[in-house]
Design a protein that fits this description.
- By secondary structure, the chain is α+β, with helices and mostly antiparallel strands.
- It has two domains: 159 residues, Beta-Lactamase, CATH 3.30.450; 147 residues, Heat Shock Protein 90 (2-Layer Sandwich).
- It contains ten helices and twelve strands.
- The strands form three sheets. Strands 2-1-5-4-3 form a five-stranded antiparallel beta sheet. A five-stranded mixed beta sheet has the order 7-9-10-12-11.
- Strand 4 and strand 5 form a beta hairpin.
- The longest helix is centred in the middle third of the chain and has 74 residues.
């Protein structure tokens, strides 16, 4: 069983392979069809010129007309014989049908040079289409040229055969294309299997390590807490400062462990399912009230724009965590005396959450990376403020858990907007 990211990668690679194979197959079909048609047309042109010479010899010997009456009536073969300068018609075998009349009206399109040929396409008054191969050659009696003989061969049969051939080629191409798609899917799976296995082992290690770290970290936190609460111990100022530092790092490691476990579950699609209805209006107001105290400490103003009666099918704890992550992230990068705005509103069939800050903003390059694990825009500053580089990765996992999307935009004139869109109905 593939991990979800690698299944998407396999699908993209399959689409790429399918596109490449499709282009190659179409190119081969087009080249084959063009070559076959060109060969047929060249052969017919050569044969028609040779037939004109043959019919010219028979005319000289016995005055036998080039075309039979049956060929003229069916329009299969027509002829037109004129003197060398074309001023006098010696024999007109175009017949009385519409095809012959159309040929006569398109006389300016006939081949001009001797021993040449040309394909004529015409439309009759009733909309019927005619395709004739026209050729011209001299009729010679000894050293004397008696005239110019034009002959016209109906090519409709060849066009119908060409269309059938093209249809068969396309059917074969379609079969080959589906076979190529299946081969591309298999090839993509084979190519990414080593990466997927390596990723699965790394994922399992992260989950196992995070799980194993929870117990010793809990013991460390209890020991540090005991030392801090032991009033009888005579510890130096350095020791007290070290214990305080240990307490802070223990909390940091505990948060890191919990975040890694949550992300490991999200990679495996093992995040808890949700069926409860959440009052997002109350939840947003509750989280905003909690974060207002933290904002006041940092000399920031937290502004609320929350619509009433916002209901959502989801996981209340996860959504609360999402709001805390977005607000906390905005506070970390907002200078003092600026405003952070939390907006929640219903837009058609979705709930939209926005967190706007007036900080330094995020470059276009970093916007593509901020949801990557352990990525921090300002690493030194994030480290000093306790950032782990996992907050937005968790936010992305929670949003995907609810079938939504999260994007980052520039806040004008300065700052960043975190834009979350969640479907109101569970998917």
């Amino acid at each position: 069983m593939w991990n979800k990211p690698f299944e998407k990668l396999r699908s993209r690679m399959t689409c790429l392979y399918a596109a490449i194979f499709g282009i190659l197959i179409l190119a081969i079909v087009a080249a084959a069809y063009t070559f076959i048609w060109w060969e047929i047309l060249a052969h017919e042109k050569e044969n028609l010129v040779a037939q004109i010479y043959h019919e010219g010899e028979e005319w000289v010997e016995s005055a036998e007309p080039p075309c039979s009456e049956a060929a003229i009536r069916s329009g299969k073969m027509l002829a037109y014989f004129v003197n060398p300068d074309g001023t006098r018609v010696i024999l007109n075998q175009l017949g009385k049908g519409e095809a012959g009349q159309e040929l006569l009206q398109h006389q300016h399109d006939w081949p001009k040079e001797l021993n040449s040929s040309r394909l004529l396409r015409m439309h009759g008054v009733n909309g019927e289409r005619y395709r004739y191969l026209a050729a011209v050659a001299p009729v010679i009696d000894g050293d004397k040229q008696l005239g110019r003989l034009y002959m016209f061969k109906n090519m409709e049969f060849y066009y119908q055969a060409a269309y059938k051939t093209l249809f068969l080629l396309l059917c074969m191409a379609l079969v080959l294309y589906f076979a190529a798609c299946y081969f591309g899917y298999w090839l993509a799976g084979r190519n990414i299997r080593p990466l997927s296995n390596m990723y699965a082992r790394q994922q399992q290690f992260t989950a196992d390590a995070s799980h194993e770290m929870r117990t010793p970290l809990a013991v460390m936190k209890l020991a540090v807490q005991g030392l801090q609460e032991d009033e009888d111990s005579r510890l130096s100022d350095f020791a007290k400062e070290s214990i305080k530092m240990l307490a802070g790092e223990s909390d940091r490691l505990s948060r890191l462990t919990e975040n890694l476990m949550t992300l490991a579950r999200s990679d495996e699609d093992n995040l808890p399912a949700y069926t409860a209805q959440v009052d997002m209006t109350a939840l947003c107001q509750k989280v905003a009230a909690q974060m207002t105290l933290l904002a006041a400490e940092k000399k920031l103003q937290l502004k609320q724009e929350i619509q009433e009666n916002l209901l959502l099918q989801g996981d209340e704890m996860a959504l609360s965590r999402l709001l805390i992550i977005l607000l906390d992230n905005a506070m970390k990068y907002s200078p003092q005396q600026t405003t952070i705005t939390l907006r929640a509103a219903k837009v058609k069939t979705h709930l939209v959450l926005e967190v706007r800050d007036e900080g330094c903003g995020i470059s276009d390059e970093d916007k593509q990376k901020i949801f990557d694990r352990f990525f921090r825009v300002d690493k030194a500053r994030s480290r000093s403020q306790g950032g782990l580089g996992l907050g937005l990765s968790l936010a992305l996992a929670i949003v995907r858990q609810h079938g939504g999307s999260i994007k980052v935009f520039d806040n004008m004139p300065q700052g960043t907007v975190m834009y979350v869109k969640l479907p109101l109905e569970a998917k």
